[in-house]
Amino acid sequence: MKINPLKTSALLLTVAVSLYSCTSGTKTTTTTDSTVKDSTINAGLKPTGPAPEWGKTIKPEMQTVIEKLSSYGDKPLETLSAVDARKNHTPTDAVMDLVKQNNITVPAAKVDTMGKDIAVKGGNIHLRIYTPKASNGALPLIVYYHGGGFVIANLDVYNASAQALAEQVGAIVISVAYRLAPENKFPTAHNDAFAAYEWAIKNAVDLKADPAKIAVVGESAGGNLAANVSIMARDKHIMVPVHQVLVYPIAQANMDTESYKNYEKAKPLNKAMMGWFTEKYLNTMIEAQDPKISLVNANLKGLPSTTIITAEIDPLHDDGVMLADKLKAAGVKVDSKNYEGVTHEFFGMAILVPEAKAAQAYAAEQLKAAFK
């Protein structure tokens, strides 16, 4: 199944849904979270081959998703144009196909969704708004930014993450379709991300949300955007988010870290892809040192409490660790967890991967605590 703008969001809302977790809410700092396999969600999901050379510690459920993704036979993303790369299969496609093939029961969505186009400098962007069905009074509000290296993916690909946050936190979630590169170069995505946050503040009451309880969440490139939104809010003297959850964020430009070396050829993200993303988004490679891209070089003082989630088998693992350290050094309260045996993009795979189920529960607990 390829990324197709005509795919209905209803299908994804039905299939790419995330399950709840009952893991404890103990706060930890840069720890490893091990979870017990839940046979009720992934019964019968077993890899067909040995663990890949690039990920000997991979968990079986995670490996099954990667095997499915590899089975499509797509050309390496870094060899394609951006337009063709967007036609490649995604990890979400692999999850959805495995759910269908294994007759895995999908719980009904506990949210309603609506679309909204908003004006931004130079054009318009689309928002998808998730509202819990069983809602009373003003709810907290989360502005969510998807991944894809600023170049690929869309709201459908990351539907499971946004929906899980809405359901598990009991919050309204605004998922932001910022404009993609290379059609829209740096810093377009960053400016779009902030414009969406400003819109959320101004329209919170109309959405039946509490304007004093707004957080930002992002995955990968979206994690970078979420952190930048907090920085821009601070610098522009508007309400800073009460919390930020950064899931394997892009946080610096050095591709010679230990995790880049160890997982250079990992899937679904590898070092060559990160170079391709960088070249597509930036006007010149010098911009890779800009604090908006290299968050570790930014002024991080005065940012909201932060939750950072990393995956073991991920070139960006060390980005998250480095950012956590820099935030702590700047006096920011940071909680973080690393999930072993899983790869980049695992967060939205809770219907198949126990570690994703646990990570979503952890993020939800952190957000609920911040909203209190």
How would you explain this protein's 3D organization?
- By secondary structure, the chain is an alpha/beta fold.
- The chain has a single domain (14-371), classed as Rossmann fold (3-Layer(aba) Sandwich), CATH 3.40.50.
- Helices cover 34% and strands 19% of the residues.
Name the beta content range: 15-25%
Helix and strand pattern:
HEHHHHEEEHEHEHEHHEHEH
Radius of gyration: 19 Å
Give the C-level CATH assignment: Alpha Beta
Helix content: 25-40%
* Largest sheet data: 9 strands, mixed
Give the spatial strand order of the biggest sheet.
1-9-8-7-6-4-5-3-2
CATH superfamily: Alpha/Beta hydrolase fold, catalytic domain
> What is the first-to-last residue Cα distance?
41 Å
**What is the CATH architecture descriptor?**
3-Layer(aba) Sandwich
User: Helix count?
Assistant: 12
Given the helix and strand composition, which structural class is it?
alpha/beta
CATH topology assignment: Rossmann fold
Shape descriptor = globular
Summarize the structure.
With 372 residues, the chain is α/β, with parallel strands linked by helices. It has helices spanning 9-15, 39-42, 60-71, 82-85, 91-101, 159-169, 188-203, 221-235, 258-262, 271-281, 317-329, 354-371, and strands spanning 31-32, 111-120, 123-132, 139-145, 172-177, 209-219, 243-247, 305-313, 334-343.
